[in-house]
Amino acid sequence: MALFDINFNLANLFSVPIIIGMGVDNGVNMLYRFREEGPGQPLLSTAVGTSVTLCSLTTIAGFGALMFAQPQGIASLGLLLTAGVTAIFIATVVVLPAALAWIGPEPLKPKSSRRRRRRAGLAAGGRAEPIEAHSSRGERTSL
Known about the structure:
- The protein has about 140 residues and is mainly alpha-helical.
- The chain is built from 4 helices and 2 strands, in the order ααααββ.
């Protein structure tokens, strides 16, 4: 905001949670994809990288259109959001992959088949386990 000589006003005060939310969303999506793929894989060529790029560019274009609005509050909101989303996009596609390559968290490990069966309600032997339910009178029944 200091770069563009923009002061906080009631209109552009709403831009702060939007910018923070979009930054968190982009970062979490890219980090999770990095943990799935592992180090050394190009993040931007994946489906998540493409969707983050397209989402950011369309958001920049949409908020950029607000810069040409007649009311000065809306124009400053458009300028601030365009600058903020552009900074987030650059951080997501340049800074985050470089930081991940440098730091490199461990990739996610595939879940064991035993866990998958338990989540699906199956016992280790492949049989369905009974699920207990409570009636409105507090009685326990097996489904």
